[in-house]
Every structure is written in C-alpha cells, then in structure tokens.
Amino acid sequence: MSGISLRSFVAGSALCMTALAAPALTLAPPELPTVLSATRLKQAPAEVPGSMTVLDRELIRASGARSIPELLRPVPGMHLGYRRGNQANLNYHGTNVTEARRLQVLVDGRSVYRSGLATVDWAELALAIEDIDRIEVFRGPNTAAYGANALMGVINIVTRLPLDDHGTTLSFTRGNRGVQDWYASHSAGDLTHNWRLSLSQQRDDGFDHDQDGRDYRDGLRTTRLNLRHVWQLTDTQSLDWQIAASEANRQSPYEFGNYFNHAKGNSPLDEAIAGHSSNADISGRDFSAMGLWKLDISPDHQIQLQAYAQHAERLRDWRVCESPVAFSAALRELNGLSELAARRVRSYLEGDGRQDLPAIDRARMDAYIDRYMRREGQAYTPRLSELANEVAALVPLYRDNKPVCGNVNENIRENRYHIELQNSLRLTSRLRLLNGVSYRYDRVHSDTWFGGTVDNQTSQLFGTLEYRAHPRWLFQAGGMYEYSQLVGDAFSPRLSTHFFLAPLHSIRLVYAEAVRSPDMYENNANWRYVLRDVSGPLDDPRIHYAWARGPGDLDHERMRSREIGYHGHFHRTGLHLDIRAFQERITGMNSQPLKVGDFQPDNASSIEFEGLETELDWHIGTANRIRLAHAYIDFEATSKYDQRLTARHSGSATWMRAWPAGIRTSLTYFGADSLNERRFERVDSRIEKDLAFAPRSRLNLALIWQYRLDDEALTWDENRFSSRSHYYLTAELNF
Known about the structure:
By secondary structure, the protein is mostly beta strands. It folds into two domains: 3-239 and 253-319 and 410-734, Maltoporin, Chain A; 324-402, no CATH class. The longest helix is centred in the middle third of the chain and has 17 residues, at 382-398. 45% of the residues are buried.
C-alpha cells in the first residue's frame, strides 16, 4: 500500500481494537465450518489443499453491498475494476484490467462463465444477494477439481435452502446515484417439499460524469426471478431443482470509432460523423434450469447427478456513421492481409496531415509503413504498397461528401448443456475417494462476432484421493483430465501434504498445475460489421473494412503453483487465521488486444506472482467480530496489459458489533495502492435497527454509507462521481 493506505489500514485496525471493551450481545456464535469448493469433498478448512475464504451470511448482510463483485472486495488478493458503472471486472491477483478470463464462477455448482466471450456478466447474473447463504472462494489454481477456467481460483456462490426460513420477505432500497432496488420472496413447505420464489430488481445511474465533466451514460436496470424446490424423495434420496431468469438493460455510450479524420476533423464529412450519436445500450436475457439428485447408499457412500441447461443473449443494435473509405474493397483487402499496414496508412494520412492527394509523397508513405512493419517482423510487400496507395487516393474523393450511415449489431446468443455424475466413497477409516465424469456442450451464435455458429464439446474425468496416514499427517492427490473439441486435451494434477500441529491447526504444502482453455472469442472469432439500411453515397448493404479473425490454433495457458500455508482455528477465543505464501507462474498467456481493428491473440505472454496473503476472522464474545485481510503481491509480466490491475499491497479491515436494543453496526476499510495506476481507499459503514411486531414479524431498517478517502477515478479516467459519498437506506419486512 501507499504510506497513506498502510497508515489507514493500521489505524482502522487499532480503532476497532479499542472498542472491544463494550458489552457483548447478539452476534452469531462461531461455528466449526466445513467447505465443499476445494476438492468437492466436505472438509474442514484446516484440511483444504489451499486457501479458502468463506463469506458467510452475516458478513454478506453486514457489508451492505448491492453487487456480488463488491461483496468479494474483502477476499485477499481479489482486485475489482470497472469498465463502466454497469460492467465490473473481477480478477484474483489482477492482470488485465478489462478482461476476467481466469476465474471459474459457480452458482450452486452451475458454471456462469460464458463460453462465447470468455467472461462473467455480473450485472445480468440471475441471483439476488438476499438469496445467498455464503460464498466460498478457493484462492489459487483449482483446475484439478473444476477444469479449465479455474486457473486462478473458484468462486462458488451457495444459495439458501428454502427450509431455512419459511415466510415472506419484502425489501426496498433507495439512495443517491439513482439507487432503486426491491426484493420480494416467499418460502414454504413441509417435511417432504420445501420451496422458495423470489423476485428482485436493481436500478442505478452508474458513474456521474467523465473526465471532461460530461454526463456518463452507464445506468443499469436488472430484474430477476428465482424458484427453488427441494424434494426429499426418501430417507436416502433428494432432488433439488432450480429455475432462474433475468432481464437487464445496460446503458452504453456510442463506441463506434471512425477510420480516420479526413481533414483533422474540419471537413464537412468529419463534422457529420462527429455529430452523429446513437445509444448503444445492451439488453440481456438469461435463463437457466438445474437439477441435482443425491443418493446416500450408506453413511460412507454417496452419488449425485447434476444436470443443467442455460441460455444467455446480449442484444445490441445501433446506427453508426463512417467514412466511405472504410467500406472500400482496397482497404478491406489491405486489412485482411495486414492489420498493421491498415493502421499505419491511417496514422500516416491522419497524423502527417496529408489528406490532399497532390500533397501525398507516396514514397515517403511507403517508407513510413515499411519502418513500422519491420519493427514487428512483417514484410511490406508490393501488393500492400499498391493497396495502401489505392486507399490514399480515395481520401480526396469523399472528404466533402456525406458519411455512410447504417444499422449494425453485436447480438450474441449462447447455450450450454451440462451433465455430471459424481461419486464419493470412504474406503477405510483413513482413505476417502471422490471421482466423477462430466460432459458439456456449448453453442454460440452471432453474425457479427462469429459469422454464424460455433459449437464445442467438452468431456472431463476427475478424482481426488485423501489419505490420513496418521492423526498428524494428511495426504491428498487429485487431478482432472479434460478434452475440448476445439482445443484438445489437458491434464491438471494437484498434490498436497498437511501436518497437524493440533486437530484444528495445520501447515500445508501444495503443488498444482492448471490450464485455461482459450474460449471461442479468442480462438474462433470471425468479427465483422455489416451495415444495413444504408444511407449516403454507397449502396446497401456494406461490409466494414475491419475484420478480426481468431487463429483457431491457440494452446492452453498453463500454470505451475507452489504454496506453503497455515490454517488455525482457536476455538476458545473464536479466532480463525489463514496465511498463504505462494509462487505462481503462468505461461502461454493470451494477453494481446482483442479489438476488431487490433485483434492479435497468441500464447506469447507470461507472468509470475510471488506473495503473501493473510486473513484473520475473530469472534470476540458474542457482540464483536473483527476481520482483517491483507495481500502482498510481487509480480513480473511480459505484457504491459497484465501490469494494470495488480496492486502490490491491498487489504481490508472490518469491525462488526451488536449493540443493545436490536442495533447492529459494521465498519470496513478497503485499500489498494495501485489499481490501473490509481490508488483506492474507501470506508463503508452500516447501521441497522430491528423492530419486532410479533414473534414472526419484524421490520429492519438499515443505512449504508460509503465514503472514498481518495479523489481518484475508478479504474479508468472517465469513471467519476460528483461526490465521494454514496448512501442508501433499506427497509426490510419479514412476516
């Protein structure tokens, strides 16, 4: 952290400690937890082959967070960036500021990682925070248990069982920055059937303005539906099925960049293009259905079958205006042969101000383009020179003409079908085995992104063997074999050893290898814009010159990770402590730009992380809870794009307290020394009051206030708020 961040972190911790003399009341008592997301086996945290962060329901509620990415800020080493106010980018250990390709995200075991565009759309996720029971975050590679895309870790969001609290809940939230949320749910049931139906909506205005003070159009509206039913078929069998749907609208500014300015913005054509503005909002619709069948053959043997289907679509239609030169056959062919040559023709014509054909020195332009291509190891062939001069000759023909305007879209639809069989068996008192097999079918369709439809089939075989050789020694070996139709096969092993200082205190050594498969967008893109309903000097339809093509032969990204750690639970004092020291190296990374005019995916980049993460969770009596987290990360990346979102120091400090008269408070400090070269410091506070009307009826009022201690933009220059303060009030009625 910066000096200010480190001092604030220490001061915040000290401030929390000074308050512990107050009388203890009603925070939930500490329990001995178990987790499922590490190896798929139910384990105590001291037995996990890695580090786990568990955000329980008490922490989730006390945070006051309105989005899941904001909920995950307290996780050590988790870095959150924003492309805009409605598009969050969550990365463990950072790397690229605009992409999040290396975390597997699950909701009750169902993957919500999009196969088409290699990302997680947090805004469209069909899940209300009020329905979450806990979030388990495995920090480190976990391809051995969950396959490719779990390269850096796994986030498993576990929702509440319907039988946990029967009744009705109504909640309303209002605040500045356009916050207008509501939530409604009803759950009921008996010994055999339990169900819950929830409906929710979120609204906000995103960021207030950009760096120039102009209004920033990035508001969000999301509506969600969730239905869950748990059916106890027999004493040994259960069926848990869920249906989820969401509909969202994300505002987006006009983002279609023209090829170049004909006269540095001063020609009638440039003025007409610059004056065109069209909303490019994104409409999203998601739907999923999932079923989980469990059979307990004996107390030591269980099998389960999970299957789900999901559909996601993102619709984005808008009207663009562009120079007629951008639709010329010469420029299209030039760009197809060399994107670099096409970009350098543009920079020469625009940067050197030679837009009038008589003033263009063609020999000088050829020398200019040739120099830059040699730097990138490319040859400037006679055909490229001929095409470049044809493009230059078109410039004076159109500079005083009208632009070409037409409708384009970035519509995309994705489908996934997944089935998985898992078997867990205790072979002896010292030996446990988990194994399974799964099959997944993915289909993505987009005329713009892929020129049609792309399919992929993925098969997996996985297993974990756990051997307790002695009360003080635990050995685990696991691995995943995965075959992808588009990429090929890979094997990801993991080995770990635990030495127990005491039953709830262990030192662990972990070695793991992991992979990430390139997704369809990186490997199989066929990205072109086709204008329809064209107006201007050209006919309808028209194909834009820019053409991004995936290479089709990208290999897996590969990680080797070494970890030494300690986990301890001091039961008498209510203290949990986890320390992780790690060294991770990823090779074969795809870190290059993936823009339509600059699409260069490859496996040429690498990054190495070394660091230390510490997490402390302390229940002090029944009234106070202290949570501290810190991550120190030293890294070396070959690509400049992977150096943006990694903070060397980051952390959080939380104090939660239960007061008399049904009052609870929480205070949290977040700090990071550099997120895309910007410091981040914020204090979040929450105060709530419970009002009981009857034994089963109560009203809860909560005020949440967030205050930025720094005056930086959030991730990017254009992401700015008018005030450092953000507040909202929530009223929740339960009956």
